[in-house]
Amino acid sequence: MVENSNVKTLIWDRKTLKLIDQRKLPFQKVYVECSTFEQVGAAIKDMVVRGAPAIGVTAAYGVALAALQYNNNNDNTDISDFKNYINKSIQFLSSSRPTAVNLFWALDRVKNVLEKHNSISALTEALILEAEKIEKEDVQINYKIGQNALKIFKKEKKLKILTHCNAGALATAGYGTALGVIRSLNSMGLVEKVLVDETRPYLQGARLTAWELEQEKIPYFVITDNMAGYFMSKGEVDVVVVGADRIASNGDAANKIGTFSISVLAKYHKINFYIAAPFSTVDFNTKSGKDIQIEQRPEEEVRQVLGKKIMPDYMPVLNPSFDVTPAKNITSIITEKGVVYPPFKKNLLNTFNSL
After folding, report:
1. What is the CATH number of domain 148-353?
2. 138 is annotated as an active-site residue
3. What is the pTM for the complete model shown?
4. Options 138, 197, 245, 323, the catalytic residue
5. Which end of the chain is more exposed for a tag (fewer CB within 10 A), N or C?
């Protein structure tokens, strides 16, 4: 039985998709309503919704909304025209964010549905059902990730855990990946405290992860990103658990900017560094982290904090949204299929072949 999270990332009623506006948290809990695939694409691009699994589920619902749009606005019964419209929506949604592989994985799944039906009504229902299936599976997958993590840690020791960015229910359809691991550990009484990196420039840790932990009554402290090494040196971090937006076939993992630095600090202090992610995040077409496209975000995200400018416009800014942690810095990758250990190139492929 999958335990429900107190956090609801998205609400689907077969007419519209409501997304909790993650730009407004933790001060406001409001939802953005999407009734078109264009609105869904904008919500992904503008960070209303973020986190690789959540982006994938949202995109799938975007395609379902495209099917409903077509039915509402067209009397044309030509199945070819309908499929062209759906493919147009898929192409549009695929351009919303480049790094998270779950976006393309989910869109490929709904695209495969196109070849299985030859009537508009049947295909519309099939696209809706596939999106709903992706959402349901995501929650179950995250729960399994959390359960698999319990096999790693000693049950008699309470852990001090460091996490970066947000890989919780807000980043998924529910429960979470890295935060799902923490939730599972906490349910067993194995969490002493969580240190939450604030995660500049978008503050996903301070605004989102801390908010989720507050909802779940899990003990935590927010720290600035440049405090991680200090707390490691003081023995205040037992393990690091983070998520991933794309994992190359050799185990290199792209995650929120700053993750690579934490992995270096963890390796220096001999602290285990874990990636928690669904197996769909593994991209076997990407050989190494060097091949992962890193999204460059707007300069204003660095110039401002919560809408307040902290530097003048004449100061040039660089704002990569992700960095790549090399496989050699990763202790293991926790997936719903089990815990994968080095050598990742061999063992990720063995796990895939055993599915």
Report:
1. 3.40.50.10470
2. no
3. 0.88
4. 245
5. N
